TrEMBL record:
This is Signal recognition particle receptor subunit beta, a GTPase. Transmembrane segments: none annotated. GO terms for molecular function: GTP binding; hydrolase activity. Belongs to the GPN-loop GTPase family. SUPFAM superfamilies: P-loop containing nucleoside triphosphate hydrolases. Keywords: GTP-binding, Hydrolase, Nucleotide-binding. PANTHER family: ATP/GTP-BINDING PROTEIN-RELATED, GLIDING MOTILITY PROTEIN MGLA.
Length: 188
């Protein structure tokens, strides 16, 4: 076997979802390098523009991107790009998605609708994605079938439950995504 065999494969993954669903938290919890965050304090200027229902304690928002890295096996390194969640920054998304192999769409069951645009985005671009339900306290205990129906997901799109503040939990989501993406590429 040549030495080339141990060079890890760099894979670009997008972490998406609506405003305040936990994208930045996920990239931060799993990254093995100090994550790049581009957050600004939510100010009075956002009142009436940013929908804060359910996330009243939130103080900052991503204005450009989150960036992190995680090695999930000796051969595979994931480069994570977290998107901004607010509508007024959606112009960034096309740029962030270039070359992405797959995506995580995070959802908060209290505000499922905020993640609809993310699902459309990846469906339209044929980028494989998994839906990760972030377990906020006070979230509704939906079954996977209910989430699938509410989000009108294809039967094969994986749904996983997670706590994005927990490194192992976030890592499991990424492993599920890589597995699913590989299956899609192999035409399974
Ligand atoms: N209770 C609880 N709080 C969480 C959880 N995940 C994230 N949070 C908190 O929820 C808030 C939103 O998290 P962020 O990671 O900033 O969300 P985001 O999706 O990056 O937000 P934008 O960039 O503004 O779209 C933060 O205050 C987190 O600490 C969770 O699973 N449970
Ligand atoms: Mg963010």
């Amino acid at each position: 076997m040549s030495d080339m065999g141990i060079i890890p494969t760099a894979v670009k993954i997008v972490v998406a979802g609506g405003f305040g669903v936990g994208k930045t938290t996920m990239v931060n919890s799993v990254s093995e390098i100090p994550p790049l965050r581009t957050e600004e304090v939510l100010t009075e200027a956002g009142v009436g523009v940013d929908d804060m229902a359910g996330i009243e304690g939130k103080e900052t928002t991503t204005v450009a991107l989150d960036f992190g890295r995680i090695t999930i096996s000796p051969r595979v390194v994931l480069y994570l790009f977290g998107t901004p969640g607010q509508n007024r920054f959606w112009f960034m998304w096309d740029e962030l998605a270039v070359g992405a192999l797959g995506a995580v769409v995070l959802v908060d069951t209290r505000r499922l609708d905020s993640s609809f645009p993310s699902i459309d985005f990846f469906e339209n671009r044929n980028i494989p994605f998994v839906v990760a339900v972030n377990r906020f306290e006070g979230g509704f205990p939906h079954t996977d079938a209910q989430v699938r129906q509410a989000l009108d997901l294809d039967p094969n799109v994986p749904i996983v439950s997670c706590d994005v503040r927990d490194r192992e939990s976030s890592k499991e989501v990424l492993i599920e995504l890589v597995q699913y993406t590989m299956d899609q590429l192999a035409g399974v």
